[in-house]
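Blinded run. Sample ID left blank on purpose so nobody reads anything into the name before looking at the predicted structure. Input follows.
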Amino acid sequence: MNISNAKHIIVALEKDQDNGPAMQRATLLANGGDLKVDLIYCCYNSFLEHNLLLNEQERQASKEEYLTEQQQWLHRVLTDFKRICPTAIVNARVLYGANSTSELLGEADRCNAELLIKTPARHQPLKELILQQQDWELIRQCQKPLWIPQRAHLDGKVLACIDPLHSADPEHTRDLKILNTAQQLSTIIDKPLQVLHCFTDIPHGLLFDSDPMEKNNSDHSGSHIARQQVIVKLLEPLHISTSQLMLLEGRPEVIIRQLAKKPEFSTIVLGATSRGILDRATIGNTAERLLHSVNADLLLCTPESC
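Blinded prediction complete.
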């Protein structure tokens, strides 16, 4: 993903949320160029669709009135954006459908957008406990790079999270995409880049040997050295120094969440791993576990976008 030279992006808005950060990210990418920006608002009113007290004519009239109200709101957002970023080519559309994720992704495919910026959808605290996070399905299904702004200003470091030993990506295609994207963003916002790799080595002997500690300490050390050599070899062509690298032991979502609590990190660039239907329904991925639990932007590079 070449975000520094993007030509066409989609900004998906939420009417009852703060769209300022998403709009600011779009303005940042436009930066005086001829970027094409589509402002999209997905809406649906189940009351209008399933109200037995309305006949078809009344239902249709109410639906048109509802859509007009949404379009007027979106037009005001469009006017404000044009005033802030006059060089951008901006369009605005309201999409109506029960499945907002399908509507949004379908629109992204139709217009061949290079990047999707999405205002996070948040429930009220009580609903958060019982309802699924609304953006999980978008993370799982999105084939485009996805940027979810979580904070007002990008005033901290860019954290690139890589996993070069992942068996599904022996050529490091996704890690190189993550690193390239993070480098571009670091240049755009003029903030330092930090690279993170999390590992959870469990020496085999700890599980099956009766007295494994002495042997496995050396195995563990050797594994750590081999891992570091692979990562350094990956970083060298990109001119990323070892001083920018952090190797931390633990679960990625736990470590990233701890780092993201620090004000020094404002953006997390990571991959969203594709899974089967059963896996997606039961275990999710790191990005889903981090959503709404960190005070930092998430910029996701999917395998399909690499």
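Unblinding after everyone has recorded impressions. The chain has two domains: 1-149, 150-306.
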